[in-house]
Design goal:
Length: about 260
C-alpha cells in the first residue's frame, strides 16, 4: 500500500483534529471511512491495522500509525507547513482532554436518544464475542473488552465525571489566558493546539457543556472560535468534507447550546 491512506470517521473528535492537520499541511490522502456507528472499528481487518481499534489511523507507504498525537507528529515530520510548534504543558493538557468521557456522560442519559448505555454494553459484549470468533486477535479484543468495562464504570461515576468536567474547565481557562496574549495557540497561525481546541469546543457545545461561553458573543472563547471558523482548514473539515453524513452536516457554526 503506497502513499498516504487515512482511515477515519469525519465527525469523530480526534478524526477532526487529524483532518485539520492534513488540510493545513496540504497533504494528499486516500480516505477510507470507518463507520464507528456500526462498529466497523471492531472488525478484524481494521483491528489488524490498528490493534486499539479506534479512529483515526493512517497508513503511510505501508506503515500503520495510530493514536491521534502520534499520527500528528508523524505527519509533522512528513514536511509541509509546521503546525505543531514547541510542546508545552498546555498542549499536553489539550491532548489529554477527556472528551470521550464527557460525551458518553451526556449521551448515557438518553436525552437525545443516543441510548449510550446500550452502546457501551454492546461494545463490551461484542469484544468478548469477537475474542472467541477470531482467536488470533483474542488479546486485542480482550483489551478492548477490559477498556470498555472500566470506561462504562467511569461514565456512571458521577463524582468522577464532575471532577473531569472541572478539569476541562480549568484547561479551557488556561487556553483562554494564552489567547489573551496572542491570536493563536499554534506557531504563529492556527495550528495543532488550536485544532484540538476547536474540535473540543465544537463537541462541548454539541453536548451543551458550554459554561456560558458559546452563547455569549463577547466571550474570548466564542470570539476565538469565530476566528477559527473563518480559516480554510476549518471549512474543509467541518463543512466541506463530502463524507459527513447528512444528519451531522451543519454550516460550521457552533451547535446551539
Amino acid at each position: 500500500m503506497t502513499g498516504l491512506h487515512y482511515y477515519y470517521f469525519p465527525t469523530s473528535y480526534w478524526s477532526r483534529i487529524v483532518s485539520l492537520v492534513i488540510a493545513a499541511k496540504g497533504l494528499a490522502a486516500t480516505r477510507h471511512i470507518v463507520d464507528i456507528r456500526h462498529a466497523e472499528n471492531f472488525e478484524p481487518d481494521y483491528l489488524r491495522l490498528n490493534p486499539r481499534g479506534v479512529v483515526p489511523t493512517i497508513v503511510d507507504d505501508g506503515r500503520a500509525v495510530w493514536d491521534g498525537p502520534t499520527i500528528v507528529r508523524h505527519l509533522e515530520a512528513a514536511g509541509g507547513p509546521a503546525v505543531v510548534g514547541e510542546p508545552d504543558a498546555l498542549l499536553v493538557e489539550l491532548e489529554q482532554l477527556p472528551l470521550m468521557l464527557m460525551s458518553y456522560s451526556v449521551w448515557i442519559k438518553g436525552s437525545r436518544g443516543e441510548k449510550s448505555a446500550d452502546i457501551l454494553a454492546d461494545k463490551v459484549e461484542r469484544a468478548a464475542t469477537y475474542a472467541t470468533r477470531y482467536p488470533e486477535l483474542a488479546a486485542h479484543y480482550e483489551r478492548k473488552r477490559e477498556f470498555f468495562a472500566k470506561f462504562r464504570a467511569q461514565v456512571y461515576d458521577e463524582g468522577h465525571v464532575q471532577a473531569q468536567a472541572e478539569h476541562v474547565g480549568q484547561v479551557l481557562e488556561r487556553a483562554t489566558a494564552r489567547l489573551e496574549e496572542r491570536p493563536w495557540l499554534g506557531p504563529g497561525r492556527m495550528g495543532y493546539p488550536d485544532f484540538i481546541l476547536v474540535s473540543a469546543l465544537y463537541r462541548l457545545a454539541d453536548l451543551r457543556r458550554v459554561d456560558g461561553w458559546a452563547d455569549d458573543p463577547g466571550h474570548p472563547l466564542r470570539r476565538w472560535f469565530e476566528r477559527a471558523r473563518a480559516q480554510p482548514e476549518y471549512q474543509a473539515v467541518f463543512v466541506d468534507d463530502p463524507h459527513i453524513l447528512p444528519q451531522y452536516r451543519r454550516d460550521g457554526s457552533l451547535p446551539r447550546p
